[in-house]
Amino acid sequence: MAPNPTEAPNPTGAPSPAGPPVLAARPLVTIRGLSVTFPGQRALDGVDLDIRPGEVHALCGQNGSGKSTLIKVLSGFHKADPGAVIELPGDQELNFIHQDLGLVDALTVSENLALSERRRGRRSLAPVRKGPERARARALFRQLGADIDVRAEVGQLRAAERTMVALARAIQGWEGHGHGVLVLDEPTVALPPSEVRRLFTVVRQIRDQGAGVLFVSHRTEEVLELADQISVLRDGKLVATGARADWSAENLVKEIVGKELGDPPARAGDEGTVRLAVRGLRAAGVRDVSLDLRAGEILGIGGLVGSGMEDLPAALFGAVAIEAGTITVDDRPLPTRGHSPRAAMRRGFAFVPSDRGIQGIVLEHTIRENITLPALAPVRGRYGLSRSRERRDAAQWARNVELQGADLERPLMNLSGGNQQKVVIARWLRTSPRILLLHEPTQGVDVGAKAAIYALLARAAADGAAVLMVSTDSGDFEQIAHRVLLLEGGRVAEELTGADITQHQVNLRLLAVSPSSGAA
């Protein structure tokens, strides 16, 4: 039974759970009557929340529910409306890991840690000693169980390694005791299952030392695994809160979206002709990949960090140089020498990258401009670009991806990460691609939007597109993939079909694959 928001309020003022009473420990952070109003929008409306020592408190909700706004108020980025109360007693600290991590790519790992290192007493003006700085960084990563070169530039690290650097930076100085509150905003979006387990182990250690943790995630299975307390925001209001024991997966999803979700779309079939044939492909991170992708098929690509799965879609799209191998589209060879995104688009490719902020969108442009940018011909009039056609076209695609109530003239940088992802997907589906490449298509997207994205991809496949989907979320495969290829060491190690395509089986096989099992 889910927590019931209609019951009498508990002493904190938040909706009461239908279960054991709330913990009695004094909160590390107390929030009362938190409202935030932007022009034409009330982002938060009278929210009460407590974060207690020795507790992981998960905050859930769809994109636009107010989660990011609440975090930005705690970090000082946004101001609350008059009347709100936020108490942080004593010398407690708030430390944040944001979705964009906030690292300095041009600096080394140890230099990033040193930028925020807590120093007691008077600050020294003496030059930084690199040896001790690196030694402290290595000791911290040993505590996290992470093997990261502290001399490497952060910009050269993989996504999972960058997340571990951000976590190390946030907790340095906490060794052996809890000290304040750690705020984690979607920390697992770029992590494969093995790295998620490692992160959760560290978070539990921090909790057990007496710290409070505010954990924000769209992945309900992670929330149910990690959290001690769960609260749900919907349309800026706190609609339910309660202990983990009071929640089921079904009720949590229902509270998040405000309704029951329908069945996922049917899996795509594989009866179509081979649309994309790849043989012996070699590129950065890809050693020797061969595969066939049929029209009407959704092919999942999985793997652990460094397996080559992260690099495959960029190589196919021409974003990185191809060293060897052949690519054939509809039985016509695609020249690999000088292969480029422009050439790929001419042959019907579309690419939704994982790093949307750098590769997928123009943050300073409006929603309308971002949606229509890849293909302007359909919105041209007699005298050039037709703004009315463009607005109608963009509005239709905003509705298709459930970008509800969006002002199309709003700069994309003002949208949440999940809504930005919807825009990236909309802009490429709008081109009616023959081959759709996606890297982490549901990254940072809530459960309601996931269902909409699954339906869109299933519809694209049903219309004849060949879909290749790279994901670290094995739930994506379980929902819509017809086949799954697992990569290891830059090669295909295993193929899963039919009843084997479940989250459990995919994760199990990922941990079992080894270099010796890779296909030549």
Plain-language structure description:
This protein has helices spanning 67-74, 109-115, 130-144, 159-171, 193-208, 220-226, 249-257, 312-317, 341-346, 356-360, 367-372, 387-400, 417-429, 447-462, 474-480, 503-512, and strands spanning 29-38, 41-51, 55-60, 85-87, 94-97, 181-185, 212-216, 229-234, 237-243, 274-283, 286-294, 298-303, 322-329, 332-334, 349-352, 380-381, 384-385, 435-439, 466-470, 483-488, 491-497. The chain has 520 residues and is α/β, with parallel strands linked by helices. A six-stranded mixed sheet has the order 5-6-7-3-8-9, sandwiched between helices. Helix 2 crosses helix 3 and helix 2 (109-115) packs parallel to helix 4. The longest helix is centred in the middle third of the chain and has 16 residues, at 193-208.
Topology:
Blueprint: E1 29-38, E2 41-51, E3 55-60, H1 67-74, E4 85-87, E5 94-97, H2 109-115, H3 130-144, H4 159-171, E6 181-185, H5 193-208, E7 212-216, H6 220-226, E8 229-234, E9 237-243, H7 249-257, E10 274-283, E11 286-294, E12 298-303, H8 312-317, E13 322-329, E14 332-334, H9 341-346, E15 349-352, H10 356-360, H11 367-372, E16 380-381, E17 384-385, H12 387-400, H13 417-429, E18 435-439, H14 447-462, E19 466-470, H15 474-480, E20 483-488, E21 491-497, H16 503-512
Parallel strand pairs: 3-7, 3-8, 5-6, 6-7, 12-19, 12-20, 15-18, 18-19
Antiparallel strand pairs: 1-2, 1-4, 8-9, 10-11, 10-13, 13-14, 16-17, 20-21
Short key terms for the protein model shown above:
520 residues; alpha/beta; 6-stranded mixed β-sheet; 21 strands; globular
